[in-house]
Amino acid sequence: NSRGGASLLKDSIPITEFSASGPFEGHDLLRRGFTSVKNELLPSHPLELAEKNFQLNQDKTNFATLRNIQGLHAPLKLQMEFRAVKQAQRLPFLHSSNIALDTLRGNDECIGFEDILNDPSQSEVMGEPHMMMEYKLGLL
């Protein structure tokens, strides 16, 4: 029984012991790529931080505008709806389209870069469902 053996292993030996990130281990080039001190210190382009935080900045602007127009209750209600929609997810090994979140943000009628070239459901990498669920539930 492989499940019983895995739970015995989990209870007796910490899984982190098997990782290659000990004090005497080198950098794993296959998993992490080449290291660069410059990439760790500064973003590679001045607009990188603005692009990384675009949705957050847009949400803040929309909430401030909504508060000025309709009052304090409107952005609070919308934030509660965002939080509720983000919590409803599929299983970790299944792709979730987040159509409800896109509808709340008004992105359901827009076609963007991520809609065409960044589709995780067409990815060649698929994790093992049992391992992913155990990780999400904190059993690993």
From TrEMBL:
Record's keyword annotation contains Chaperone: yes
Keyword annotations of the record: Chaperone
Domain of life: Eukaryota
GO cellular component: cytoplasm; nucleus
InterPro entries documented for this protein: Ump1
Alphabetical GO biological process terms: proteasome assembly
PANTHER family reported for this sequence: PROTEASOME MATURATION PROTEIN, PROTEASOME MATURATION PROTEIN UMP1
Recorded family membership: Belongs to the POMP/UMP1 family.
Protein name (database record): POMP protein
Taxonomic source organism: Haliaeetus albicilla
